[in-house]
Amino acid sequence: MNILTIGGATLDIFINIEEKQSLEIHKDHQTKSYIMLPDDSKIEVSNVNYSTGGGATNSAASFSRLGFCTSIICKIGNDYGGKLVKQKLDEEKVTTSSIIIDAQEMTGTSYILPSLQGNRTILAYRGSNTAMNREDISFDQFINQDLFYITSLSGRSSQLLSPIAQEAKKLHKLVATNPGSSQLASGATALREALPYIDILILNSSEAQLFMTSLIEMNTTLKEIILHQEHSKIDHHIPQLLSNTIAYEDTFFNIAYYFKEVLSRGPQIVVVTNGAEGVYVATKEKIYFHPSIQTNVVSTLGAGDSFGSCFVASLIENYSIEQALLRGILNSHSVLQSVDAKSGLLTIEQLNQQTKNMQPAIQYFAINL
Q1: First CA to last CA distance, the chain
Q2: Among 30, 237, 256, 294, which one is most buried in terms of CB atoms within 10 A?
Q3: pLDDT in tens, 87-135
Q4: For 124-135, b where at least 16 C-beta lie within 10 A, e where not — what string?
């Protein structure tokens, strides 16, 4: 099975501050935590670590460790960051012959500040990730691929999502995509146009809320229907996103309605991850929910990439959705215990060993709204 990942590649620089301080601000029934850095002062850094990241490289490393023949299309600069990205992919046995070298732009770079809670604040320089264009990609190579796994395409590179997905579907290939929040924030038009050519769509809950506002305009009648259903629910065992309708900007986010809308536009499987709570998966028949595995979180970096790649890998290996959920969550659970996005990725042997005596903890729900 040949897999091609397409999307972001970054040099990740981890900056560990000796004395961390945080501030919590409560607003609109939500609590937001902030890293505090004093103005006009010199802040001591305990250590600096270099690694590589970006959705395409993280996913490629994951697929390769799971035993797939994996290649990658991404754009890097002719600099130290680009050389490290390629070196790490070579070490992971990922085919790098289709990587594009940009002579003008620097490799995308993330400056990562870990927080006290195990989350991270990222100062993101997109660099060469924004400069990928259609002329960079040889569509002739698509015929040898079985699965296209498209991750975040930043800036003007986002316009490639629909052409890539269309070309893959012309060849009757499987297309999965896990676009990033920056891609959606700068405009969800490209993803909307690509939906008819996508088989599996994976977003986190914040991204799904953002994408839903671009899919539909909720009129008063629809809001009343959703809110009526919200107030009529009495089952306290229903997971969070199914039991709550979330006020978001000038509209509402209801995950069941979101699933119904997206599934009606092309994808066969739609996934929404919700951090520590768990993962929701919808088909046209039902909604699946699997809770996360409790863990001591070192860093959340790369957790979404590790889940998505392993979930899709399991499906194409003919595992059920239930088993694919468990396997994806275990891979993510392992990555959450590492500082960077790749060290914790499981090999196929490790994954099989961990799932040997485990059963998925699935809840099922009707998708009808």
Answers
A1: 38
A2: 256
A3: 999 999 999 999 999 999 999 999 998 776 667 788 999 999 999 999 9
A4: bbbbbbbbbeee
- Token code pair at residue 304: 């979404």
User: What confidence score (pLDDT) does residue 231 get?
Assistant: 46
Q: Which two tokens stand for residue 332?
A: 């993510």
pLDDT tens by residue, 216-225: 765 545 555 5
Q: Please return the burial class of 202, using the count of CB atoms within 10 Å of its CB with bins 0-12, 13-18 and 19+.
A: buried
What is the C-alpha separation between 264 and 283, in angstroms, rounded? 10
Domains of the chain in start order, with CATH, are 2-17+44-366 (3.40.1190.20)
Q: What is the pLDDT of residues 122-166, one digit of tens each?
A: 899 999 999 999 999 988 889 999 999 999 998 889 999 999 999
Q: What is the dihedral of CA 164, 307, 270, 273, to 10 degrees?
A: -130
- Cα angle: 286, vertex 290, 295; to 5 degrees: 165
Residue 362 in contact with residue 320, Cβ under 8 Å? no
Distances (CA, A) of 17 to 29, 35, 37: 30, 11, 10
On whether the CB atoms of residues 128 and 106 are closer than 8 A, the answer is yes
Given 3-state DSSP classes, what are the helix, strand and coil percentages for the chain, each rounded to the nearest 5?
Answer: 40, 25, 35
> How far is it, in rounded angstroms, from Cα 356 to Cα 28?
44
